[in-house]
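Handout, tutorial session.
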Amino acid sequence: MRESINSDQLTTISGFNPNISFFPAKRVKAINERLGHNRLDQLLEEIRTMVATKIKAACSIPQSYIQRRHSLSQRHEFPDWASIQAHISAYFEAVHPLYPFLSPDTFRQKAAAEDLSQALATDQAWAALFYAVVAIGCQNNEGGSFDVGVGEAWQYFERSLSYFPDLLFGRGSLTSVQALMAMAIFSSTVSAFQFEPLMLSEASIMAQGLGYQRSNSVQETSHRRTFWVLYFLEKTSCFGTSRNSVIDDANISCAIPDVAESVFDDYDWFFCFVKYGRLVSKIHHSLFNISAVSQPLHHYNSTVISLRSELETWRLSIPSRFRPGEVPKPRLLREPLALKIALLTHYLYFNALLTISWTILHVGTARVPASQQDILKRELLRTARSVLELTAFIDVAPSTPVWLLAVLPLSALMILFDLVVHNPTHAETGLSLALLDMAGGHFSRIEYASKGALPGSLVAEFAHLARQYVSDVRSGKSRSSHEAVRGRVSGEKVLASANAEGPHQGCTDTQLESAVMDAGLSQGNGLDAAAAMQPWSPASFDPIFFPFLDDPTYALDDMRWLGIDVMGLFDQLY
């Protein structure tokens, strides 16, 4: 383990990319002081050790693929052709509508040809694509695994991955790009997450080198479908992992095609997801690169508000039965994949909203009025709760993308855990504890489904720590409730002092408050009049003490994620 250099540094583990982080070290120390023990330290250490072990095992795999490449590529025998056909059917039923970059008729016809073995032996790109599709189909046909290199699906993926050097150094083609995309889709899951960034980056570079971002002729429909699916995959992956996208938005001129298989009667989710990809690309470019962070504060705030408004516009453009921020109603989602599409739409929105809410609270603290800060805090809390509420709809299976299965729920759990520990006597803490238990149940389901390969019960420990602490505070066994009150008062004094120092640059507090409200914080997912009348609504909350915002001792000096950077767990390892 690498020691922290200073109290503000995020705790990390060593490795190819030592950016696996949970809380700033100073924050961990403060939480331990509140809890009255160091169990949080021990828990984080256990999680880091477990992840480091899995990453170390995964990092040794690629060389073995290269060594076995020739023996694998020479044999194309299918003793059970019926299973291969079943896996291909599963792919086009369960996965293709989400990522419609292939032509189903063309693929099926080529896969059913009598000379398939010969085609696989002579065309490396087609072989890589074929085996990747079969692997994904097998993964969705109960042949997947949560373990690296284990299971029937991995046998097919191993064959596909063996052609990676040929794709990388060979002549680029549409089939090569599609093969890399298929491998990336398989790699979005727990058992192969270390390959996804590499596959998407190489596919994006190859596609742009072939000029697919400017394909507009009638004969180039397949190119356009492939490019826009790749655009969504690459942009959302980069947004989640804080990597820079290699796709240049300013150089795109091809039209978004109509994709019939990715449309319900009232919801064109393919077009909606592409719009989301463009939005998160703007968020990443406008808020988190070097030039954005160094711009004047009033410009930065204006950008944040504008992006928040765009996100709300995107949300409202979605039909109500799929709309994020509204409780999903399974009885209204009867079409095949409808519930899956609804859950994905919700989580995409919440992922972006959590990022923007953190940004507004952190960067704009001195600019946002105290009353508006309270609204933002409530929205962040409500968003974290919404993420955990939806875990009941997640399919705990090897084919579920890891960010949907674990990353976003874990992020929401950490936010809620932090807030519960700092607000043990809050009126809504009981509800938050119940949601932490629900999240613990979700991760315990993961441990059960993975047969212990993913020890989700470790995450359930956060709920136990929070509940025990709240119980101790309420029974008078802990003094932390008094410390929290003093911290809240201290934070309020600091904010009052900051607001009293004089006029700020740029827009006034009143203008900023009005703009934030206009961006939708009081609508839909925010605080409307009806919500104010409901006892469980955020409008009924007492003031919330927020770490790092209301207590100056938590302040950090840069734009690093201030809670949990769990996507660092899944960064590239090549």
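The second record follows below. Compare its token runs with those of the first.
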Amino acid sequence: MADTLVGLVRERAQAGGDGHAYGFLVDGEQDLRSVTYGELEQRAAAIGAMLGERVAPGGRVLLVFEPGLDFLTAFFGCLFAGVVAVPVYPPTPSRPEAGLASVARVAADCGAEAVLASPLTVALAEAAAGVAELRGLPWLVPDERPADAWRAPRVRPDSVAMLQYTSGSTGSPKGVVLRHRHLLGNLASMDWFTGRPATGTVVSWLPLYHDMGLIGTVLYPLFRGMSCYLMSPLHFLHRPLRWLELISRVGGTISGGPSFAYYLCTRRAEAISPDRLDLSSWEVAFNGAEPINLDVLRAFEAAFAPSGLRPGTVVGCYGLAEASLLVTGARRGEPRSTHVLRAELGEGKAVECDPGDPRAVELADAGGLPPGHDVRIVDAGSGRELPDGAVGEIWASAPSVADGYWRKPEETGAAFGARLPATDSSYLRTGDLGVMLDGRLFVTGRRKDVVIVRGRNVHPHDIERVAQQVDRRLRPGGGVAFSILGADGEGVALLQEVTTRDPEELRGLAAAITGAVLADQQVPVSRLYLVPPRSVLKTSSGKPRRSATRDALHNGEITILHTDGDVS
């Protein structure tokens, strides 16, 4: 197999140039546009020739595209030119200011030399001229020059293919340096995760500028020579069942997303007759949310079993941009969880117990290790490796782990240079907490997000999960819990989006939330904020940015509809 993505595209084109590569559902319903592997190579070569005239190999090029096939050909065109692709979230044309400010920060950080844009997004160039970091950058639209004008650059496995910018849940944006060998290494791990299928069809609505969407659902089908069908995240969010309808329409075998995607579909399951969907082809429904919500996954499988969805189809996995994507994965037919004693877990120990034990809490299984992967659980303070059953920071080593962050030596050293005694490998410090049991990883939370209440570790996602199950007027994925200091020490604050503004309803919801959290988690909510929809800040993949949302709240940037609590 080819040792670069450029070579991989060319191999696919030579082996079956007329074979379907990618399709995009333009309107989210019926208008399907497609490209073959041969056409993909031709378009990528044409864009590569154009870029080769403007940007030297190794230069950074921002990709500012709405979801669609143009983004894919532009991405591969960057690789064919030997330049570094830098996907960014496209600003909203109607209100470009905030989006352009984000693009400007990325441009300044990576030293961008050009912007590659679609005919639609290139209209932002005029507004970008008023942003200092973007002023003077050429905005280029792919042209139709002959592909034979392309001259292959010196692209090697160690060449930088892309910078994956991630805002993360707790920090400022950083560009993860991903080389061709990193990406191909992770695609091989994904092949293990999916069971190395001989044939298949990938379906996705995930954002193309994010690692799960780009690597997991665009590059993986290229790696396997499969067909891929895509739709816009906006079309999915507007009507989530479009995702399942596309799987049914094309016989999708691999697809997935965060827990909230399965939740949204489950809530709308009654809106579609079971016989209108055929999900029997679906073999791997991956769930890479942080954390995996087992209740949601079970409800999803039950809701769509009448449409042919088989038990055990939804499987958990764990990954992050710094590792390209996948670190561990649970495969079909393997156990999805284990039960441990709640009190001991709060003390940093996972003691397995019977599921029926009233003291039990269920942990989702993030799976085992692909070949070549090494995961250790480490005491973050001392750097000492912990045994099975002990909760600590997850450290990972794999061929797909990046070399570091673009031009950030201090952050790179802190995150990527971890060492363990008597080992030759360097490890990525993920910042996540987890435990290993019998060679399988169970993620328990973010180290930086953990709240310590009276000596007990409390994970924000547990508080958020309980609160959002109280009432349908509490938006799923629309809450963040964080630490707050009061007279008696550290406590838990919760900010939750609601769909009502009625004062009496707000008071009732507040009482129900605090009661539910206290009953389920044995932790009082020191302060509760009920806020309008879309108040919680999120990463490009939809994860809540807890620290950033907390800061926005404290800076008066979030409207508060109702508040309870006695912490000042």
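Points raised in discussion: The two ends are 61 Å apart (CA to CA).
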